[in-house]
Write a structure and sequence with these properties.
This protein has 251 residues and is α/β, with parallel strands linked by helices. The chain has 11 helices and 9 strands. The strands form 3 sheets. A 4-stranded parallel sheet has the order 5-4-6-7, with helices on both faces. Strands 1-8-9 form a 3-stranded parallel sheet, with no helix packed on it. Strands 2-3 form a two-stranded parallel ribbon. The radius of gyration is 18 Å and the shape is globular.
Length: 251
Amino acid sequence: MTVLRELRHQIPDEPLVYLGDTARVPYGTKSSPTVLRYAHEAARFLLAQRVKLLVIACNTASAVALDDLAKHYQVPVVGVIEPGARRALEITCNGRIGVIGTEGTIRSGAYERALRAGRPDIVVHVAACPLFVPLAEEGWACHEVARLAAREYLAPLLEAGIDTLVLGCTHYPLLKLMLQEVVGPAVQLVDSAQETAKVVAARLNEHQLLRQTAAVLYPRYFVTDIPDRFERVGGAFLGEELQGVTTVSLD
């Protein structure tokens, strides 16, 4: 939803179709073959809605499935890892970058590969932060429990001298203010949702797919389980009440 929020901000005239696999999240604790299968099922559903570009708005799915989806389907496919890694390389001064994410994202090593592909001498420090997703979804972004967890998770990265921290999960921008307090002003945060939306706008322009007519368009929302929790949590992410959420099966 943080990616969707940024897309609405940066390409407001584009019709957006959102699929939340609420029946099977979180992906971060699942095996790579399972995540790959889920990603293909989600992609096929979205392509049936006649989308012109596909965004994998999940770090775990991007780490596991981006290359495979890009090979299988005829539309441009954008993940959330490369944009965040590229921005981190642009802003780091000391070459020490921290990455936080789910267990699945960190285990994949995708950020380390992306960062070192752009700059082989970069020093990368990573930390899995499994409590951050439920804290974000409960609306506890500024709760003392969140601060205590952040101090514990981030202490080794700060001791290692990072000057840039990549928020390697699309839930984590909801915790941005608290995380900035914990890491201090000397560490810059990279919001992968913002960077992904910039790449999407550029890719649409590159492929001459940008909508030329201005219009007020509301996203279409699909979920794979009852929408009650999605409507509550998603509304908090977007700062507005969600309308017209449809429950679907990916079978």
